[in-house]
Specification:
5 strands; single chain; alpha/beta; Rossmann fold; 5-stranded parallel beta sheet
């Protein structure tokens, strides 16, 4: 049973893939954990985020995981970042659009129907990392932009917050401090940038 003080804390559900769980970084360096620390430091006290995310997940796999985990809302904050693995596997953009809309509808339900308590984070461009040295970076960038155009349009229609971290993710090619040793996933330094951007947007709400 939670203590009375724990029950008073605000709740955060983070939905996604490797970019949410923080592949290759310590738990405290993934952006949901850094965001909660920033909020807590100014007296907006959140409990440890509930994270439903696994490296490699596509939108359909996230849908299946949510059904299995069955998180119990309402949550004070819900984030959604999904789609890079759809692009990587060459999945249909039309199917992604439908599945993303379904996921965003679920996210809004988890947030008690309060749109401003939902944050969608754009898909980073993995083509802008050293890992993609032997890939067609222009083609990857174009496809990532197309996926982000889909999730941005749906997010704007729903009235939720949208954070575009994609341009910054492309700086990793010239700054190795922004990626982990796998040369693909963001470092804690890069995640701090994302957390800062989200913090500035949502802190006034709570």
């Amino acid at each position: 049973m939670n203590s009375a003080s724990e029950e008073k804390k605000l709740s955060f559900l983070a939905l996604g893939d490797s970019y949410t769980i923080g592949e290759a970084v310590p738990e405290n360096e993934c952006w949901p954990m850094q965001l909660v620390e920033m909020l807590n430091n100014v007296g907006k006290v959140f409990s440890k985020p509930q994270i439903i995310a696994t490296t490699g997940w596509t939108s359909d796999e996230l849908i299946a995981a949510i059904k299995t985990v069955n998180p119990q809302g309402p949550f004070n904050l819900v984030s959604l970042l999904i789609g890079v693995n759809n692009q990587y596997r060459g999945y249909s953009k039309e199917v992604y659009a439908k599945e993303f809309q379904d996921l965003l509808n679920q996210a809004m339900d988890f947030a008690g129907g309060i749109a401003i308590h939902v944050v969608v984070v754009s898909i980073p461009d993995w083509g802008g990392t050293p890992f993609a040295e032997d890939r067609n970076r222009d083609e990857i960038a174009l496809e990532i932009d197309q996926y982000n155009s889909i999730n941005r349009e749906i997010s704007l229609q729903k009235g939720v917050h949208y954070i575009d971290i994609t341009p910054d993710s492309r700086l990793a090619l010239s700054d190795n401090t922004l990626v982990t040793s796998d040369k693909l996933h963001p470092s804690g330094t890069e995640y701090q940038k994302w957390a800062n951007a989200i913090y500035r947007l949502i802190a006034p709400i709570y």
